[in-house]
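Service request form, structural biology core

Requester: graduate student, group of Dr. S.
Request type: structure prediction, single chain
Budget code: on file
Notes: please return the result as structure tokens.

Sequence provided:
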Amino acid sequence: MLFDRVLIANRGEIAVRIARTLRALGVESVAVHTPSDAGARHVRDADLAVQIPGYLDIEAVVAAALETGAQAVHPGYGFLAENAAFARRCAQAGLVFAGPPPEAIDAMGDKIRAKATVSAAGVPVVPGGAEPADALEEWRDFPALIKPSAGGGGKGMMLVRSAAELPDALESARRTARAAFGDGTLLIERYVESPRHIEIQVLADGHGNVVHLGERECSLQRRHQKIVEEAPSPFLTPETRAAMGAAAVEAARAVGYVGAGTVEFIVDGSTGAYHFMEMNTRLQVEHPVTELVTGLDLVELQLRVAAGEPLPFTQDDVRLDGHAVEARVYAEDPARGFLPTGGRVLLLREPGSVRVDSGLVEGGVVGSEFDPMLSKVVAWGPDRAAALRALDRALARTAVLGVVTNIPFLRALVTHPAVAAGELDTGLVERVLPELVPADAAPPDDVLAAAALVVHTLPQGDDPWQVTDGWRVGGRAWTTWRLESRAGVHAVEVRGLPEESAEVRLDGQAVPAHVRRDGSGLAVTLADRTQHYLHVRQGDTLWLGRDGEAWSFTRHLIGDPGDRAGAAGAGDGVVRSPMPGTVMVVKAQVGDRVNAGQPLVVVEAMKMEHTVTAPCDGVLSELPAQPGRPVDMDAVLAVVTAEEM
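Core staff response, request fulfilled:
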């Protein structure tokens, strides 16, 4: 018998997605949330909600389940999903854990032990080494990949190409592993050149039945984190698919697995040889693509298996129909090295033509406390080309104004010729990055013109004589607006009233212009071409959105004392935080002589480290940054004063 009430021990889009299946099954859902997450979408979507101190607080989560009468707990992914102690605590409290047995989590959660276990079951593994530390430090088979033994999601993974890079890489990986997973144990493996990352979805019940649901290609990655996933893989033949599926089933059987899990393989893009990497003992972020091509609801199957039901189908019943592709929308800035961003969601538009798993709400705040993934846009098509086209169209109809996201980057990626051809490997994104993120990040001229026209129509005060129509006795004059974007300050001239008849001038060329408003929509006509925008204001900042892109502008009149055109740059010795986060390490002291490029401070946000370096040679004269202290984006971390010659 299925449960009456289930607690979801997670947040964000996965908690919203789990609640959706529970609602369809007629099962009540219980959400948990921290004080800062009280207004989050997953709280609104649940039948009940309980505040807890933190998502990793096992006792608080268990207490919330017992207090609300929940019979089972679904952990989603991340947080406690692969925590064997949590699974055991649930069992002690009489709660059903909608995941594998604790013993399976232990066996597969430790990558070192997992490799030994599946190797004994006949599954091929990548050659590598593990702790003690001296074994890692003496590794000489390069290139190599360092991995935390615990955890996943690409956190702490580092590619090392020489022995000289190894000590610093081990230090950084161990620090990240401790912060992210509470365990600094590492392993090292031979790095497979031109690798494809292909994983197999498995399902097992408590009656001895284990099946696989085909594969997902996850080769489009940056910093070892997946960006775009698809099912099925354009690389595998039916024979390889069957062989890898059988190997994944054997890996699951080797640890007495029950529930949904994913066996990840590295596949040589030249030979097709595959090697076991790890098993994720939980639902995967990319599970929707498997659901779309199989027609199965993996969350429902997890719950039914957890309730003791047998799988309702056999391996022979599994069919793959069409193709599905998923893109992860992140709060990050590709133009600044994919550093995390943040802000308040001022306006949200998500497409209705495809599946969108999202934790976003208008008015919600995106901070640095949690993972930067905001939502997933997932498209299905009868074939791969149709699925990619549908995904691109859906991303073009997605808008998150108020927060810088990676949506334009995703559109460039899914339409890249190599992606369209299925010529993928885990290094592709880095190789084509200049094509995906242009060096010139300045807004296009038509967007600058649209922003200036909107600013031109805004009231400048209560006095009707302050209307900026440019009216003069001898005819209308030009008003010059200086618009500051993330790329710099741009001058645009406007005269007339844009909602009646106006002109806009960029680089000396004047064109007729007209603006028509419709709520949050904006139709801007320049000469004989009309573009449609979404727009919203936040104080003095104007946000414009079009075709999946978003731009923010702050207005300045020429001569405005608030003009920030000359704000501190790299040459002034001021070292600023590139993202909102927490200072992890300070590598110098006030009074130290430092060289340009020397590491000074390590800032961490969302379990990702970024090393900030000295902008010039000189003496470290100020050091506001202190370990453990939170910092905002562009906060001053240090000041380097150049020594007089």
